[in-house]
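REVIEWER CHECKLIST
Item 1: Sequence provided? yes
Item 2: Single chain? yes
Item 3: Sequence as submitted:
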Amino acid sequence: MARAQRKANIEATSAGNADERRSWLPALATLIGGLLLTAAIFLLLASGERERAHDEFERAARDRFLSVARELEQGLTGLQGLAAFVYTNPGMSAEAFDALSRHLLGLSPGLDTLAWAARDTQGGGDRYLLSRLYPAEGASLVAGADLLARPEFAATVLAARDGGRLALSEPFPRGGDGESRGVLAAVPVYRTLISGADERRRRQDIVGVAIAVLDPQRLVEGALSRLDPVKVELRLFDLGAPRGRQLLYHPLGSLRGAAMASYLADPEAFGAVEHLQRRIEIAQREWLVVATPAPGQFFASLGSRPWWALGVGLALTLAVAFWLRATVGRHGQVEAMVALREAELSESALRFHQLTEGAPLVLWISSIENGQMLYLSPAFESIWGFTPEQVFQRPGLRRELVHPEDRDRLRRLVRSAAQNEGYDTEYRIQRQDGELRWIRERAHAVRNAAGVVYRLAGLSEDVTAQHRHAAEAAVRDARLRASFESLPEAVLIVGSSGCIESMNPAAERQFGYAADELLGGPVAVLLPGYDPLAPLDPSRPQSGVRRGGGRFPALVPSSDYDDDNGRHHVCLVHDLTALGQSQTVSSRERERAQAILSSITEAVVTTDALGRVDFLSPLAERMTGWNSAQALGQPLPSVLRLRDPLSGLERGDLMLSAGASEVLRLVRRDGSELAVHCSVAPIRSLGQDVGGVVLVLRAAGSDAPGEVQAGQPSEPSEVLDSFGRDALTGLPDRPGFVAKLDNALEAVQAGGAPRTLIYLTLRQMHSLTALGGEAMADRVRAGAAQALIDVLGPRDVAGRVGADEFALLLEGWNAETLPEQLAEIRAALGQYSMEVQGRTHRVDADIGAIPVNADSGDSLDVMSAADLACHRARVAARSGS
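Item 4: Structure as written out by the authors:
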């Protein structure tokens, strides 16, 4: 049995040896054939290897060209992102700039520095000062520096400003060694998208430039770090730079000054060297990337003697092994490249998803042909209330959510986006839950390779909170300003240094100075004893000084508040002399007015602005059953109970029915009733403010008692005629003028000829009031009204529509003769002048004019448009344009 086992082992060993020997037979045959065909096979393999090596070199060079271009594109994308952020956030903080710059620098290692240079026009010239810089330490730029001060930067900034696009500079030395080079990239930022597209508005509408410093050394090294390590050398040149300064990157850049550092450092030195090159055109500059094989490569030394020293048998074996390795290696390289591309695409998609997922802005892309939405970022759901998938399933959903009043306007903007290169607008949306939101949307046109607009890309932002805050702030500011300017007491706002920062019109009148004459000056000019650091006793009278040196006693209570500019003191200046005089005059005038009202043969009741009774004539006391002592201070409906004769309901809306005259039932205090004619008229001050009402009662029919009926006159026609006419000038007041304007609009819309509406505001009336008093100002207003009446035609209308504002409605409209008409009106006003404290005041005004035609809208729209034209004329006059 042991013998049989031993035999089996011997046979198995013999069979294995035989198989091994048979496996060498093909190799031996191949070796023999190789020995016979050594020369022919080697030449064939050498030729094939050279071609393969050349192909591999071309492929590696193309990959590096593509990677360099991609790195450059990512770097410039970061700069474009910075410019877009600055455009949407002009008031960005330093922290927000640093946070965004830190993220954008991660897009490409070629980005060295990001900065924002704001335009500064102070001093009569343009400067672009670096107001934001990241990183602040070790950067090539200096915060606060003017980019136009360096010639290599000035040309780039001006080219970006005038061209409205990205501009690159020539290479400039950076760093302390003087050898490192950088390239400055600049993107202009304008006030609006339309400004960037209009060459005539670029210079005046530019607000600054977004700046990036590109490091060519790190740009190329970053591109090479993403590829497999094939021995290919790259050199980067700027063909637009002067010769000798064209080199941006050299593989031996760290050995500048060494013997090899100048090897192939000129773009024209590659004639006899195997190389590939690619031109990259960007921002009107042309860069050249040149790839060369690294010295010592196999195909560079393939014809040397060591290869012929190989053995005849090893030549064929090494050639086959090298071919197999090359074949397997080639497949591996292809697989590695595919995996690398997939990883890069995945990484790029991940970055884009991270950027859009956390951003509060909605990024979207749509087709220009049919408006179909191609992409919506996830933030859409939080604002619109629908997911992007629902919008893709219902293409019209996004348009349906737009508020009906904004839908047509937005549709017109989208349709004209291709011609206007985009749009920037705000509109409202109505969410499914009924909530109304404001959306700001900025879109720009995207062109294909043929230059045709085929897509729209944009950003949508929820600005509801900004609208709400702006409205609240505007209301608060308007209320505060109106309160400040309407205070009857003089108010001074004084800084901690003792300088006057603001004063209201009452202070101008009290001290006799215009605000412009005192702002920034010491408060001691007006209040010699006032010290903001040691406030005076508010109960102790102080001495105030008027223009001309006149002094008056005053109480000066004050309060303090702090803001970002420091501490401020609010001083109320009570003129004790004026207070005593005004009390005396007011008492006399009131006694005289009450005597006149008491002598009228009709019952008269007056109220204050709050609807409280402040006067009853003797006849009103008898008619109502109330005496003055009991009625004064009572609400009007409590004293004067009036019922509708038809319904029997009491009328409590007398304050709202000013101007009405009707027959009502008066319920006297004892409960008896009396039929009366009731006429209501508003009590107006010179500024047209309603300060109360006056009610005139007279008995109607046979129900009146004998003492009331006797001698009752008819209702005065002057009361009715006073409505719609200004008491000072005799011209129609604003309601009266608007009524005439409504009639003119009806005639124009019915096919009549267009009209001309002129709106003017008298200048320097506050100063005139402060110098000469309200009576002097009224003389000027009356004189201006007479001057306007003198230039009117037979069918023209003039009206006083405000304290210092007048309106003229003229026959016809002629844009060519309009300047002559305005000049005639200005000349007529200028002929009226008067002496005020030794100065000649000549009447002048800011004048605006608009046509009144069938498309003008209602009277409110027309008056608003005319007021806006007058405001623009005032702004143009102040700016000197």
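Item 5: Key structural point noted by reviewer: The longest helix spans residues 38-88.
Item 6: Recommendation: ____
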